[in-house]
Design goal:
mainly alpha, about 75% helix, about 0% strand
């Protein structure tokens, strides 16, 4: 996808609100602005069915990355658990002793 730069001016308060919203939702400000403008431009001409189709398409595109992130998190937790178990064994402790 070829991209182009768009610049707009806003107040400090609006920029701070954009930054906070983006950060709290795990997105960049650019992503928030793209999403908002896309909805603003498209939704005026779309039927409800078309909106649902667009939403399904966006979810279909997002799900592989979400699954990969979850798989990575699970692998990290499993690795951490194995490291902790090994440290407990090396220290001569059992898991039952540590829980009590």
């Amino acid at each position: 996808m070829q991209t182009e730069r768009v610049t707009f001016l806003t107040t400090r308060d609006h920029k701070a609100a954009l930054d906070a919203f983006a950060a709290s939702n795990g997105m960049s400000v650019g992503h928030v602005v793209r999403e908002a403008t896309t909805r603003y431009v498209i939704e005026g001409d779309m039927s409800e069915d078309d909106r649902f189709k667009l939403l399904i398409h966006e979810l279909d595109e997002a799900l592989p990355a979400m699954h990969a992130a979850l798989d990575h998190a699970i692998e990290g937790q499993q690795s951490l658990r194995a490291d902790i178990d090994a440290m407990l064994r090396d220290a001569g402790l059992s898991e039952a002793e540590c829980v009590a």
